[in-house]
Design goal:
The structure is a single chain. The protein is α+β, with helices and mostly antiparallel strands and 298 residues long. Among the domains are: 131 residues, Alpha-Beta Plaits, CATH 3.30.70.1910; 67 residues, no CATH class. Helix content is 27%, strand content 19%. The protein contains seven helices and ten strands. A hairpin with a 4-residue loop joins strand 1 and strand 2. Helix 1 runs antiparallel to helix 4 and helix 2 crosses helix 3. It starts with 29 loop residues before the first strand and ends in a 29-residue tail after the last helix.
Length: 298
């Protein structure tokens, strides 16, 4: 069989990846959430959520590990590529993505339900392979080896049983702590982590039981420190019951102005018509703030 060759990036080799400009702006803004049923507020720093950012990488990895563990994975599968039949790591990923799609369809045809969370990684030599946490009926190693080789000509496959959620978190954690620059460049805009639609069996862990839909959200044009100073200046009392240092909670005084708004107080805020409210920066969401949930960093 001839070598698999495709793209403009066939001569690509792992290199240093330039840090996105958004990283330098990380934490320069803040989000203010005003609770609907009591005079309380929370201030959250806006972050770039980039794998290149030293402040965002760890919480992003922890959220992904929690999401993967929420699917109660039963086995971990490792699938490799065959460098002899492709011209570059970029082409290897293209072939593996096609092969993975065919393998999933084959497994579901033969075994029924099969849900997964997939993570890409590079070897020391710069070639991609994938780690898959999966849930479903038992699949023999020989079956995976045969079909993966049929789809990608790569015969090296490994499968191990996951004994506990902690085991899965430890297994996955070592792949997220690495520098993701090289693999992100080869992925060329494609996701580092792929998760099937029916994967999660329970909600991921939240910070302090906070529900974003209980708040009305405003984007502030100043960072968390200035937002805190402004809240103090406007005579709102500061409290941080969780003591985690990431969320800053306040009790609002009824007659004191909420920062970032055009003179709105908690007392007048919900007496108005439905959003958009008048404020210096437009609200991030309407009274149903659930679309914002995925963007909050706890």
């Amino acid at each position: 069989m001839t070598a698999f060759q495709t793209s403009k990036n066939s001569n690509w080799t792992p290199q240093h990846v330039l840090t996105p400009s958004s990283v330098s702006k990380c934490g320069s803004g803040a989000i203010l959430g005003v609770k609907k049923d009591e005079p309380a507020a929370v201030i959250i720093p806006t972050t770039c959520k980039s794998w290149h950012c030293p402040k965002c990488k760890k919480p992003k990895a922890l959220r992904l590990i929690d999401k993967i563990c929420s699917g109660d994975p039963e086995r971990m599968i490792t699938l490799t590529c065959n460098p002899k039949i492709v011209a570059s790591p970029f082409d290897a990923i293209t072939l593996m993505k096609l092969g993975w799609g065919r393998l999933v369809r084959k497994i579901r045809h033969d075994f029924g339900e099969f849900e997964y969370a997939l993570v890409w990684e590079l070897t020391k030599r710069g070639w991609p392979h994938i780690h898959v946490a999966c849930r479903g009926k038992y699949i023999a190693h020989s079956y995976l080896k045969y079909w993966w080789a049929s789809f990608t000509q790569a015969p090296v496959v490994n499968i191990t049983k996951i004994h506990s959620e902690r085991h899965a978190a430890r297994y996955l954690g070592k792949y997220f702590v690495k520098d993701q620059g090289a693999i992100l460049r080869i992925l060329d805009g494609r996701r580092l982590v792929q998760i099937s639609k029916a994967w999660s069996l329970r909600d991921e862990k939240s910070f302090g039981g906070m529900k974003p839909s209980d708040y009305t959200w405003y984007r502030l044009n100043f960072n968390t420190s200035l937002a805190i100073s402004e809240m103090v200046r406007l005579h709102h009392s500061r409290c941080d019951p969780n003591g985690k240092g990431k969320l800053v909670w306040f009790m609002l005084e009824n007659d004191s102005v909420i920062p970032g708004t055009d003179g709105l107080t908690w007392q007048s805020l919900f007496a108005l018509h439905p959003p958009p409210y008048k404020c210096n920066s437009p609200p991030l969401a309407s009274l149903d703030a659930s679309p914002l949930q995925k963007n909050l960093v706890f």
